[in-house]
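for the writeup, i need someone to sanity check this before i put it in the appendix. the sequnce is what the collaborator sent (i think, or maybe the updated version? ugh). structure was predicted straight from it, no edits. if anything looks off just tell me and ill rerun, i have time this weekend
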Amino acid sequence: MLNYIKAELYRNFNRKYFWVYTVGIAILSLILNILLFNYGTNVELTMLFEALNNFLTTGLFLVLPMIDMTTAEEQKNQTLKNVVSFGISRNKLVLSKIVTAVILGIISVCIILTVFLGSGAILLGIGEQFSINILNDFILRLLVSIILWIAAISVGTFLAFFFKNSTVFAFVYAGVFFMIRSIISLLELLVSDKFKCVKDILITTQFRNLSVQSVTNDTLIFASVVGLIYIIIFTILTMLYVKKMEVK
């Protein structure tokens, strides 16, 4: 399993897909800071941290290409048979796909955040209001967000195995994370307020809770628990599905 993860990482590190995607977003974040600097805004590093708290949910889109390059592409190209023929068990195959996507996602996020916050500190200044508490608060939110992103990767990996077409997979993934909450909210309004219980345990709801100005420890803990539950459930579901899936 470890060798397969290394092979997957080597394969993706030596492709343009991962680097063009990561570097492309990093450059866009740099351009944003340059524009803020050139237009003489009063934005400082402290404000960038506050802005990031509101955009943590965008990580759900950022991890989508990681799932695509590790799982969906092999489904589309029908190369999973080669992996299975080498003797790796299907359970280890699923775990390897999730772990690989997580590692790629974390590396990508680290690069993007380093460029964004680093260029922001240099161009816009740290600001008098910046404190270690602001940094600690952001780190806590980011760590919990990583758990939720891993949960999204687990859900996405299941969808990537289930839907053989990568385009269909991408649309279904987007629908799951950015339409279901609205649908459940509508059902809560029109049918029964009991649907609120369902809405409260959605991954997207946890990101909304993390974006508030002052987040409590209970909120962080609950979001982490919800994320871990999703990871466990969808990893098991993917294993059960792949175990019975016909690999062509």
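The CA atoms of residues 197 and 205 lie 11 Å apart. Residues 2-244 form one domain.
thx in advance!!
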